[in-house]
Amino acid sequence: MSDEHDDEAPDVLDVIHDTVDAGHEPELSGPLPDARTALEAVLLVVDEPVAEVVLAQVLERPTEEVGRLLAELAAEYDEQGRGFDLRHVSGGWRLYTRESCAPYVERFVRDGQQARLTQAALETLAVVAYRQPVSRSRIGGIRGVNVDAVVRTLVTRGLITEVDTERESGAILYGTTSYFLERLGLDAVDDLPPLSDYLPDPYALDDEDVSTST
Amino acid sequence: MSDEHDDEAPDVLDVIHDTVDAGHEPELSGPLPDARTALEAVLLVVDEPVAEVVLAQVLERPTEEVGRLLAELAAEYDEQGRGFDLRHVSGGWRLYTRESCAPYVERFVRDGQQARLTQAALETLAVVAYRQPVSRSRIGGIRGVNVDAVVRTLVTRGLITEVDTERESGAILYGTTSYFLERLGLDAVDDLPPLSDYLPDPYALDDEDVSTST
Amino acid sequence: MTDGADTAAEVTTSGFHVHLDVFEGPFDLLLSLIAKRQLDVTLVALAQVTDEFIAHIRMGEGEWDLDQATGFLVVAATLLDLKVARLLPAVEEDDEDLALLEARDLLFARLLQYRAFKQIAGLFAAGFARERRRHPRAVPLEPAFATLLPEVLLGVGPIEFAALAARALAPRPTPIVAVDHLHAPKVSVREQAVVLATRLRDLGAATFRGLTTDAGATIVVVARFLALLELYREGAVAFEQMTPLGELHVRWVGNPDADAELQRWAHETGEHDEYDASAQEPEQT
Question: I want to staple A95 with a disulfide (CB 3.0 to 4.6 A). Which of C96, C131, C137, C158 is the partner?
Fold first, then answer.
C-alpha cells in the first residue's frame, strides 16, 4: 500500500518532483521513495527540531536541496490547508499542529501545567534575551529590582541557563536556551525584533544598555 | 498564518469538503478549521491508535462521517505519495511512516544522536527510580515542568514502564525496568545507593519528597 | 511561577494595603503613573509625577525589604533633586547642575530602556500564548523502529545517578533574597597549607597548577598560594620557575622545624588526620 507514484499527484507536487532526481540508490533493496517522501517519513519520527544537515545525511542529498524540499513541503502544507505545519524552529525542522486546530488538539494533549509566566519573569526573560550573556546584577540594574528569585525560576523552567562567568567578578552570566526558542517558535535569538524598534529615536542608536548603577 | 482555505485545494479535496458542513462552532473563539484539517492535527499528536468513535467525539461529528474522512485521508496520502501513511490498526487510526521509507527512517533512528539521554530525561529517570511507583503528575510536580514527552521517551527507550494505576485517580504509575538496572549495572532496585547519602543535610533524614505541589 | 513579584502581590492584597497596587520596581511605578495621567514618557512627565511617586513610596514604607526599597529610593532622590532645582531661582550653570542634568538624563534613559523591555515582555507573552496553541509531534517511535534505537547511554554510574536524583528531588528553594554572594566561604590559609603539605609529601614535587586544579573557588587558589609562601618561609618547600609567569614548580624539601609547625597547624585546624605522616591521599577530590 505504499509505492504509489506521482503521476496522479496534483500540480503543486510536480514542481517538487521535477527537482528530485530519482536515480540515487542507497545500499538497500526494494523500490526507494523519492527524497520528498523519505523526508516526510523521517520528519514523522523526529521528536525535536532536526537540522537540515542531519536530514541531508540521512537522505544522502546535498543540504541545499534538502533545505529547498523542506521549504516546499512547508508551503505545500499551508496551501493544502493541512492540519499540520512544518516549521523551522530553534535551528531545525519539526512538525507541529496548526494553530487553528488547537481547540481539538487540546482535548488530546493535556499540558495545562504549563504555567504562565509572571510579568516579572517575562521582563527578566526579555532582558536576558537581548543582553545575553548577562549577570543577575546587570538585569537587576535594568529592571530596578532584585531579580535573584525570578532568575532562579527561569532557570528551573529551562528558559535560561548559566552560560559563562564574568572574568573579573566571577559573576554567573545567563543566556536563553533552545527550549526558550522552541517555546516562542523562534529559529534563533537573532530573529527577535531589534530593541531599537522599542526605543524613541535619540536612544535608538544606542542599543547598549544605559549604565546601570547597581 | 493558519487559516488557509480550500479554494485552491486540488480536486481530491473537493470531494471531502463537499461532505463537510462548515456551520459547527464549538465553544471556542477564532476561525475553526474544517473537520479534515482538525482530524490531521489530532492524528499528528496521538501516540496510539485512536478509535473512530473517539475522534468523532472530539470533532463533534457523526462517527460515519469521521470514518469516511479517515478513509479519504488515507487514500489521499497514498495517492500523493506522502511519506506517512494513515493506517487502521488494532481498532484505531494512527499515522505511520510509509513502508517504502523504512530504510531512511531506520538510518535516521540508528545514526541519530539519540543514544544519550538528555539531562531532562536523566533527571526524570532518577525521580522515577527513587519514587516508584509514581504518576506523571507527581513527577511533574517534583520536576516543576510538564514531563509527558520525557516520560514517553523513557518508556520507548525501555527504561521505565507502566507498573500500576493509582486507586483513586486511575493515574498510571511508572517504575523502572530490568533494562534500566542492566544499563546502570545493578541487580535490583534495592541496590540503588541510598538517597540519604546524597541529600543536602536538612533533608537527609526524610526520604519522602517534600515538594509535590503541582 | 513563584517569584518576588507574586509574593509581594499576595502579601499586599491579603494584608492591610489592599488599595496599593504592587509595582515591580521604581520604573514600573513611574511608567504606570505616567500612563495614568495619559502622558507620553518625557522629562516633563517625569517631573509631573514626582509627588505621586514619593507619596507611593510613603505608602509602601514598612512593607518593603531593603532591596526593594533601595531601588525606589534612588529614583525618588533623583526626582526630588530635580524638583528642588526647578523651584530654586536659576543661577549660573555649575558642576552641580551638570551632575543633576546627567542624573536626570540617566534616569530618563533608564526609564525608556525599561519601557522597551516591558514591551518586549508583552511580545513574549503573546508569543508564548500563540505557541501554546501549537503542538509539536512528540510521539514515541513505531514499534518497528523502536528496537533499532541505539542502546541507551546513561553516561553515569549508580553513585552519580543517586547524586542526580538527590538534586532532582531536593525541594526547590523558596524564593528568598539570596545573600550568598555577600558571604564567600571562609578559607583558612593554614588549613590549605596542611592540605598541600600532605600532598607534596606524597608527590615530592608538583606544579602550582596541579596543586590547585581541585581548588574550585578562586579564593581557595589564593589561599593555597599564600599557604605555599608560608611553607616556603618555614623551609618546607622550594620553588622553581623557568620563565616569568611560567609554570611554577613546587618541591617538597621538608625539615623538622617545618614539620613541627605543620603539626601545630593541623591540630589547630582539626585536620591532623590528614596531616598524619602515615596519611594517604587526602580525600579532597
Answer: C137
Does any CB of chain C come closer than 8 Å to the CB of residue A113? no
d(CA B65, CA C103): 71
CA distance C250 to C229: 11
Helix (H) or strand (E) holding A162: strand A160-165
C-alpha A56 chain-centroid distance = 19
**Measured between alpha carbons, how far is residue B58 from residues B20, B53, B61, C133, C139 in Å?**
16, 9, 8, 16, 19
Q: pLDDT tens digit string along A88-127?
A: 998 999 999 999 998 888 887 654 445 678 889 999 999 9
Say whether residue C157 is in contact with chain B using an 8 A CB cutoff: yes
C123 in Cβ contact with B83 (< 8 Å): no
Region at C257 (left for phi over 0; alpha for psi -120 to 50; beta for the rest): alpha
The pLDDT tens digits for B55-108 are 999 899 999 999 999 999 999 999 999 999 999 988 899 999 999 999 999 889
Cβ-nearest to A142 among C2, C113, C131: C113
ipTM exceeding the 0.85 mark: no
- DSSP code per residue over C105-121: HHHHHHHHHHHHHHHHH
The structure's pTM equals: 0.60
Nearest to A83 among B39, B99, B105 (CB): B39
On chain B, the residues whose CB falls within 8 A of the CB of A99 are 1-2
> Which residue of chain B has the CA closest to A12?
B10
**DSSP secondary structure string for all residues of A70-120:** HHHHHHHHHHTT-SEEEEEETTEEEEEE-GGGHHHHTTT---TT-PPPPHH
Q: What is the CA radius of gyration of chain A?
A: 23
Neighbours of chain B (3+ CB pairs under 8 A): A, C
C171 vs B: CB within 8 A: yes
C66 in contact with B, Cβ within 8 Å: no
CA distance C234 to B127: 52
